[in-house]
Amino acid sequence: MKHTISSSRRLIYMLLLLVIVASVTLSIFMERTAHNIRHNETPLLNRTIPQMRYLGDFESALLRYQLALDKRFTDSITPDRFQFLESMGRSELEATLEQLRPSLGDGPELGALRAAYQRIIRLTPEFEREVGVNPAAARAVLIRMNEEVKQLRLRVDGLQQGVEDAIYDNGSMANRAIGWITGLVHVFDVLALVTCLFMLYHVRARVRVEDELSHQARHDPLTGLAHRRSFEARLASLPALPHVVVLGTIDRFSRIIGGFGHAFGDRVMIGLAARIRGAAERHGGEVFRLDGANFAILFRTDCSDLAFAEALSVLRDEVRNPYDCEGHEIYTTLSLGAVNYPQHGANPDVLLRNADAALQAARKAGGDRLEIYSQQLNAEAGERLDMEALLRHAVERDELELHYQPQQSLGDGSLIGFEALVRWRRHGKLISPAEFIPLAEESGLIVSIGNWVLEEAVRQISVWQAETGQPVAVAVNISPRQFAAPGFLAHLEDLLATTHVDPACLELEITESVMMEGAESAIALLHRLRALGLKLAIDDFGTGYSSLAYLSRFPIHKLKIDQSFVRNMHAVSEQSAIVQATISLGHALGMTVIAEGVESEVQRAMLSGWRCDEMQGYYYSRPLPAASALNFLEGSLQLQAA
């Protein structure tokens, strides 16, 4: 587009330059032509035209002189009258001859006229002598005079014709010059018209480009929807009437990009944006794309209005419909957070902040739902921000500690090891892991916290081995984010090399979600961890992403049955079936199976009857601080010795 505009500008400048050059050339040519016309016409005005008039006067005088002769011959006038007329005619002829002198000069033309005139005048006395005496002789003289007059008139007519030819020639030259000027004016007019038309086209194109740039400045280039700044400006310009601001996000859209790439994601986004726009506009909504997979919708209604509920229901159903793109069937859902004006905020900033709090609550609840803002949401969001800020300093302030939950063999009832569980003690009070672990995962703090847990667990293994003289196994949970961190393996290798702890005493518990992205690289890392001598376990088996194909390739020692299946397995037959199947699967794959969350003898007996290998839970022991765990360990060793 820039290249096109630049070329158009150059062409306009060339046309304007051409018009200027043509204008200057035309002016010079017109000036020269006018000068030539003036140069040629000045003699015409000063000499030729007066000459023609004087020739006419001379011829008139000659005719009157001839008439006087005729009248004298026919006795129409008296001799006295004739003498008077003859004298006047001669004087008039003399006068006109003198008037012709400036234009004819003393050249042959004037000499010929004068000679003819003198011949006529010389015949007059002879004519006067014979007119009354000898009419025949007078008649002959008169004939000769008339012949002279006739010849003189022919000469005068010739001179007049010459004057007329000169006038005609000058006029033809002037006409040709004027014709050239007229042609040049026409060419100049056409050139100016073409330039004006092209400039009009360029101005129109410039206006069109400016309109397009203005549209792009206010709209998202991918979907064509108005963008965030337009949305904020729209909110600021709304009249003080009730309206609803809805923020929405397409759930897990990053998985589509991760699976098929950004270009494919863009094409899906275009289609979904068109769906959202169509569904919202059918119910009077205005749609804006904020960024990524986030949208904003403005409704001129109230959250409690049935029409609003219907509009959002239609919108969510529209997004739920499978989207076919390049042969792939894509399923998506929409999380929504809504606020009322002015109930939930009197200005755009407050409305957007509260709508975002409602949206985050919808996402936290699993997505594919609508949350209406309430004051509690902001309070929770503020608490989470405060907790995140405090959690960032928990390690450096030595506020984290490990508790150890004993694990028991169901075969002989002996202690087989501990699971290390992180706790956060703030101002003397323990904060539930259910509160801060998800926050650590979301914020990325889980990596630094996980590294601290590993270091503390290995240190504790070393301490217990020194105090008891026996190797002690400790299981540590590894989050998917920590597992995928670039320095995870190097950190473990350095830790084991520094502490000289037997790697077989450290068990890493991972979840199957590490397979969600980069399964092959995850399997390779597991093999390297096992090569170090570490024990590996699958934690929370069956609660998330499960793939038996990948599970068969995992270099895993142990399967851990999640407590959600153990808790009600004695009352819910489906859960007992899942537990039995997991035990059988683990054994078939050559793995040890451990159940967590065992809280009763009934549960323990059922697991023992199904040949589960190990268990942990409140029935055996609650998680213990390090000192209490040491006492538990020593007591168990004493029982084994006895």
Automatic annotation (TrEMBL):
Pfam families with a match to the protein in the record: EAL, GGDEF
Domain GGDEF: 241-375
PROSITE patterns the UniProt entry points to: EAL, GGDEF
A single MF term (Gene Ontology): cyclic-guanylate-specific phosphodiesterase activity
Residues that span the membrane, as ranges: 12-30, 177-201
Residues annotated as domain EAL: 384-637
Keywords for the protein's UniProt record, in alphabetical order: Membrane, Transmembrane, Transmembrane helix
Keyword Cytoplasm on entry: no
InterPro entries xrefs: Cyclic-di-GMP_PDE-like, EAL_dom, EAL_sf, GGDEF_dom, Nucleotide_cyclase, Rev_trsase/Diguanyl_cyclase
PANTHER family: CYCLIC DI-GMP PHOSPHODIESTERASE PDEF, SIGNALING PROTEIN YKOW
NCBIfam families: GGDEF
Name the record gives this protein: EAL domain-containing protein
Phylogenetic lineage: Bacteria, Pseudomonadati, Pseudomonadota, Betaproteobacteria, Burkholderiales
